[in-house]
Fold this protein.
Amino acid sequence: MDNLENIDVSNMDVSTMSKVIERLWPKFLDAGMNIVWAVLILIVGLKLISILRKFLKKTLLRGNVDTGVVQFLDALVKISAWTVLILSLLGHFGIQTTSFITILGSAGVAIGLSLQGSLSNFAGGILILIMKPFQVGHYINACGCEGTVAEISLFCTTLHTVDNRNVVIPNGTLSNSNIVNFSANETRRVDMSVDVAYGSDLKAAKALIESILSEDDKILKDPAWTVAVDNLGDSGITILIRPWVKAADYWDVKWRTLERVHDRLTEANIDIPFPQMTVHLEK
């Protein structure tokens, strides 16, 4: 192959041409076989990577491993397997992989220094998976964002908000921030309040609210709910309402209870006052 430039094809006769072909044919054949083997290695490698990832997922899911850990390990195995496959292809074509790995390591140090933020995100992802402050499917509030955890990847975590938006938060920032996990426990307390006018029958108002809570099947009897006078405000008397519910029923119970309290108090002629101020004028 290296002598092709020195061959003058225009001045060759048939016998000379046949000799050149005979001399070059093994080299063309070797090059073709190398390409064929490279394609086979690529196909087999891709198939093995796919099988390995599926086996890993099934094994981890069968062992009830957290979904976030499964996603993290799957991404890590994918990157590692692709690196091995690329190095194998380079070695097949005669490229010295040892020197390539050395160059890659040196480049990795330089890239690592320039991508410190990405490395902190990677470390943050590992901390999240080890400490488990939340899992995929949990509803959390962190970094000023609130939503359901959809995915925990190598470098970031994706939240799915109630208004159908995806919020991507870097793992480094997330691991160093305050995280409120609303799904960590099976039950939650719903904190509500309503103001009634001064002069209202407080016992009747509290009994009416308690009857609303007792009628709702989604409200738990244990722990017991709380209905109590919480504040004597400028415009009215604040009644505190605190039932306990399963975490999944939080919003439904809150919205339904507030609506029922309003309707029942109105039917009982118990006023819910507007903000007001009484002014006394001296003669």
About this structure: Residues 14-114 form a domain with the Helix Hairpins fold (CATH 1.10.287.1260).
